[in-house]
Queue: 3 jobs
Job 1
Amino acid sequence: MKLEKEEVKRLAELARFELSEEEAAEFSHQLSEVLAYTGQVREAPVEGEKPAIHLLSLTNVLRDDEVKPSLPREEALANAPHREEGFFRVPKILEES
């Protein structure tokens, strides 16, 4: 698959890159080579093969949820520099829009 210079310039524009004419031509050639190389994957014989989702079998190591006693609110807030109505009070970081 050949990637034209105009397509490369459009991709650069979308990515907010500035490319010279020479760079666009060079990237057009390089990306065309990459696409041609990766296109060979489509020609690989895969009949009868299982799809490989992961190369390694992965499992999540999770523990069962257990309800345990937690720190009382007053104790949790004891060292808070600022608190209000039973909550931590922190500086405002977002503007209202």
Job 2
Amino acid sequence: MVGRRIKWIAAAIVALAVAYTIAWHGLALRLEDIMDEAAAPSPEKDWHASWTRLDAGGFPFSMRMTAQQPTVVWGRGGEQATWHASELVIITNPLNLAGLSLVLPRRQDLVVETPSRRHVVGISMDHGRAAIGLASGGVDAINIGLEDVTVFSGKGTALAEAGTLDVVSTPSGDGDDRDVFLEMTDLTIGNGSAGRVERGLARMRVVGAVPRQGTARERVDAWRRSGGYVDLGDLVLEWPPVAAQGEGRLALDGDNRPIGALRLEVVGYREIIMALAQAGEVRQDQADIVIAALDFMAGPPVDGQRRLDVDLSMQHGRLTIGPFTVMRLAPLWPPP
């Protein structure tokens, strides 16, 4: 009697194992079809993707899809961006398809082409991962983490380096709004003559619904026309000897240019301007004029340091501090 029960239990286990194996491989084939459908060109989107081969692995307790030589192309007409890498690994749980994990390639290349210019940028990192939460309506949450990142030109010259870069985007719980968190540490730009940014942080809320369908340009334009904006609740910059923090609100005008206002409290501006002058980035007489003007705008010293309250305004395609124009602001996209 006991032996018969053991045989039945063993047979049931074997049957379940066979059924699970069939289901796992069926799901792998289905995921391949879903990825092929999502990557195919479509008039409703401005991107498409391709790969030389798609391999499934991870049996039995995970689903690991490896895209060999993946390429993603954005853009239409005369402007186009192409991303390429040796492989991209996508991992999910076959028992619960509530999210995806991506192992990002250590080396990536990005080519941006316009009618007049061609830009080639390489990206390398020691470690990169992304987690994507899925809901019935599509992507629910995004979490990206990169370590020891270097961005370099097509000729191999380092353009920027960062110790870590983290991006988190989650629903705010208030309608279609989303909370976004950005943090970067140990940032060096170019040859490092401007020093190292120890930490940069931004907490923001993207207010307003962004449509899921259409090209990136169409979706952003619809968000803008519906009154969408970005609340910057917390900005922090630690760039010794400079430290700054602030808040503000940003949106886009009818020409898709940034519009809004930021208020920053800055400490240590004198030292960084003097360092730039010593490095030859600006002339000493220019540095003296800038320091004198900023000292005039700053309040009295606190703990031996002057604190400068800076009101930045963005409108009519210009970034201004008070009556002074700092730079012109280009639109996100050229006019159609």
Job 3
Amino acid sequence: MDHKTAYKIMASPLNGYEILSKYVTFIDKLMSKGLEEWSTMKEPIELLSEIGSILFKVIISIFLGNEIPTTTLNKLEALYKHLGPAILSILPYDLPGLTYHHALKARKEIGNILECVIEEKRRVLERNKETKDQLVQCQMDKLIVAIDENGKRLYDNNAIIDLLLGLLHAGHHTPAYAATWAVVQISQNSHVFQKAKEEQEFIMKERPSSQKGLSFKEIKQMKYLMKFVNELLRRYAIAVASFREATTNVYINDYTIPKGWIVTIWTRAIHMDPQMYSNPQEFDPSRWDNYTPKPGEYLPFGIGSRFCPGSELTKLYITILLHHFILNNY
């Protein structure tokens, strides 16, 4: 599977002003509804799970489209919960009762569901060849119609399923952790909360009476909240580490990294380096006032050709969640 081609296809629905602006209304409605439901619950909620559930619905919509039935969506979410724990399982054996065994069963069922969705999309596209370009909306559609220079299909069903599952984990699991820490930090820092609230109230005051819900223009006006998110991702980096293989012998100062060796970039160590960030343990959004990190000093989404394609979408998730959390005093 060609990484560059797959990356281009998968990243295209996740970046850019026009594309992200389309997601604002959808994410805004889901976040607002989710927070309202939490506020009515009499028992304490598990914040990480609840945020993860909202993000799962968002990312499934982006990957598979809005037409997925609610029953299918709920089934996928229930099955997917078996996959995460198996990634770090200390007993990766296919034996009944083990976490890994349950994950393999869930992976098979998810694959069957996604294959049915793919085949239905193929049939729809085949029946509507004249308007195919208009029908290609989500990432699955783009993978289905992708062809090489000879007109040959690039991805079979199994390849599409593998790609989608990988991106599903990256697009909902890790951002859920970041969003959870966002709620923790905004709750524990009263001065930060107050500054963020003043900004949000000003934006709401300036909103036209005819406008319903958030707009991407308003998102771009949230300067302080953006600094908060930058600081959040520095302090609680999504990517704990990045791994690269040396394709040639590399010489750095007095060190030699032989060809074939794996280099680990420990992101959190970089973000907590006092030579780069003064008082690194302190959560301080104001450090981002008129500050732009040098290359290699800020790596919450990795670096280089494998930079996370969903970086801006993740920031959008967190910003919209905080917007509602701050204004409604949840």
